Every structure is written in structure tokens, then in C-alpha cells.
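Hi everyone, sorry if this is the wrong subforum. Our group has a chain we'd like a structural model of before ordering constructs, and none of us has done structure prediction before. Sequence below.
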Amino acid sequence: MVEIIHSIKSSLEEILALTLQDNELIIASKEIGKNRNDFLAAQQIDMPENYLSIITPFKGSEENVINLIHSVKNNVTYQNYAVIIVAHENQKINNVVNECAGPNIMVFAIPERISLMLGCEIAANLAYGHNIVFINSMLEIKPLSIEYLLNFSASTNSKVITSKIVNGSNKIEEAGYSIIEDNMLVGNGVGKKTTAPAFNYSMEISTSSRYCLFITRDILEKYSFDKNISDFGLALYDLGLQLQNDDIKIFYQPLSVLKLGKNKTIPTRMDSSLQPESKFINSLRPTIFINDSIGESKEIPRKNILVLGVYLGDRLNNVEDIVLNIHETVNYNIKQKWVAINRTSSNELVLKYTVNQFNRFIPKFEILNELINRENIYDYDYILTVDDDIVLPKNFIDGFIKLQNLYDFVLAQPARSVNSYIDHPIVQKQNGVVARETHFVEIGPVFSIRKDIYDIILPFDLSSPMGWGYENIWAKKIFDQGLKMGIIDSVPVDHSLRKPVANYAWSVADEQRAKILQNNSHFELVDCFTVSDVKS
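Answer:
Right subforum, don't worry. Here is the predicted structure as C-alpha cells:
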């Protein structure tokens, strides 16, 4: 055990000696973790493959952590484990060190610049063994709880498992998972008797626990905590959503019982922390570059525009700023309709335009089809789809639709600012250019459809519900009709808040793209990336 703890500490020192950003720290720690077996073999250390690492962040009082460690020592009969306490270097942990010292207990001290959740992930990457348990430090482990998790995993080949959380009044705090209610994470079965039959059988569940999560290393190596989430409970919940999105099964084992300490509940509030500060947003906000004389000679009648959007309420997003920007449109009649995933916004204006909410991931274009089916779309001159992780220039729709109408684009998108995530170079803003007629308009983060092609591209083909491959098919259809499409450079958007493809599986979407292209006439990408005309 001492050699294992020493190897983890040495790896930590190696990581912290590097000047790396958060995502680079994760990558480096994963790489070092993958090489741990070679290191241990070189040191002739023979440890079982089912070695267990129990990881807890130091939050709250020292008493909480001490009680957790004592409960592990007293109630875990399984011998092959280590407990890793993740704490900031400036936290007072002397009592923990003195009272909990042991060959399989270590304090993972990290600099203040690294969040505790990031520290927990680095610890897990560097720790030894096939099995990891992330646990809130305010819990106490009851007899055989860990053994039940290990046995359930071994007997069913389950990779991700949650426990039953109870309080001192012998009532349930969380039976396996939490759900979102009134901007809070609320435990399944909260307040019910621990013996209630409905909460005492093992089953597959759709979300994660906010208290404790058992996960095998082969799964953890492919996923990461969201670096924008510092709350332990919310981070576990978010990780569960990532797993669910990729069809990784999560199971509830009610025989594994953990007790909440003196506090009867641990509130996990879904608050405005997922909305960037206005100062930061304004620093990203692009500027519209349109000469006022452009389009003056062409009278533009007042148009009706339907704006459809989906926002991920439990991820960093900019929906409040986007909704307000569109709400303040001057020259067009606007109707906004938004759908929330996993949490509705607490913002009054966003709530006004939120027409539905789902507690699970649903592909974007499946949601858009449902919204479209509820409208008489021919009442609208344009349908504009908008993602939640962009920054719009002021008066976005007024400027954008003016130019789409002027240049007769039946399908159009704003260019992306230079600092945006960019998958296809053709969408990057070109200085000195007002717009470009192209054979390519991307499926996001913003695109606008004019009424005269509704029957050509709507409803969206759900054989590729994330939209991959649509661009190739749209380009061919619009070309065959002798119509125009393009990119508006002078009304760009910023798309740098969240990394694309972080919220669904690349491999699945790519398979769907191959299938839809096989079944539809389309342009190859090399033909799509064509600029037919430049407007300046």
C-alpha cells in the first residue's frame, strides 16, 4: 500500500510541476495514469486488478472528513483500497492527517488555482486500480456498502453504479439518483422510509447520484467532469448526463447504503453560475459591419420570423443574453420558442419563451421538428434556429435578415468570429466582405431558412437527428432549384463558450451522416466549400 501511495504522490508532483491549463492537466494525468501498470511492474509491485480508489473532496468541516474515513476503516472489510482526500494546499487539514493516518490514506494537496473537482479527476486518473468511487465527504459508509458495489459490478459487469443515501431519521435522501425540481437537484424518493419497496430493488436509472458514484476506470478514461462546474453534486449529475447521452448504462444498487452525517440534506442549487458574467460576454460580442447605405434602395417589408432554440440548462450557456437580444429586434415581428434540456432557466424572459423541458438528452433536430409541427410555418417568412452557446452582436436579427433578404439567400448563416471554434474554415469571418454566396451553410449554431424552401428541407430528416450530413444535401437541393445560399460575414457570431460535439457522441453522429448521405443525392464537401460570389 505504501508503494502505491508513493507512486500516486510522485505522479501528482510530476503533474503539478508542469505549467498547464485545466484541460491539459486532465490529458496529462490520463496519460500518466495509463502508464501506471508499467511503473508498478518495474517496481515489482503486484496489486490486484480490482483495487479500489475512494476519492473525496475536502469540503465543509474536518469532522465530516474524519467521520467518513473512520466509517471506511470500521465498515469496509475489503482490503485492497486507498482513500484519497483532495484538498487545497491552504486548507487546514492537520486533524485529518493526525487522526486518519494510515498506509492506505493519503491527502492529495493541490494549488488553489485548481478546483477541487478538477483535483478529484486528476486523483482518479493517477490512482491505481480498476474501480473508482467518488463520494461526498459529508457521508458515512455503512457496513458492506462498498462490498455490495464491487460484487454487483463483478456479477453483472456493470460499469457505473449508485447507492442509497439515508439520513439520521432513517429516511431516504436519495434512492440512486436526483432529478431537477425548482432549480434544485432533489433526490429520488426523498423523505420516504428506507424500507419502502419502490426504492429497494436494483435497476437501471436515467441520471446519476449527486452524492456518490462508482465507476470503472475504462469508462472514466473516456469522460471528464465539466471544468465549469465546481459543485460536487452537480458535477456528478453532469457526468451522469454525459454517460447517458452515450448510452452508458447506470445502475442503482439499494443494498449499498451510505448515511448522511449531521446535516439532513446537501442542497445542490442550479443557479445563475451557469450564465457567464456580462463583462465576459461583452468582451466576446462581435460588431456588425454594415454600411448604412447598403440596401437603402430596396424597400424591405416587415417580415414575420419564427426563432427556434434549444438550451442545455445544466451546462454553461448564454441563453439569457441571446433571448434578450432577439427580443429587442426592431424591424421584424419575432416569435421565439425555446426548449430546455435537464433544467429550465430561472430568468423571467427566458421562461416566457420556454415552451417545453426534457430531463434527458434529445437530438436537436428531433426537438426542432416537434416545434415546427406545432406551427403554421407558412405564417412566417423566415425560420431561424439558434444554439445556446453563442454571443450575438447587438441588433443581430435586424442586420442579418436585412442582408439575407438583400442578397436573395434562401438559406443563410452568420460567419463565425475568428476566436470561435471552427470546424470548417469557410465559415470564418472574412474581413472586408459583407457576404459570400456559397454552396455551404452549416447546421449550427445559427442558420436561417426562407419560406420558399420550407417544402424542400422541412421537416428535418431524423435518420441523422443531430444534423450531420444536412449541409451536403441542402447544397445539392438548392443548387438544383437554381436558388442562392450564403454566409453573412458582416454580421458574425462568437461560438467559443462550449466546445462543439462535447454533448453527444461523435462516432454515432458520424455513422448517421454516412447513412443519410448514402440515401440522398448530395454534394461532396469539396464541392460544398465553393464561393460563387463575394459581396463587398
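For your construct planning: The first strand starts at residue 52 and ends at 57. Residues 1-6 have pLDDT under 50 and may be disordered.
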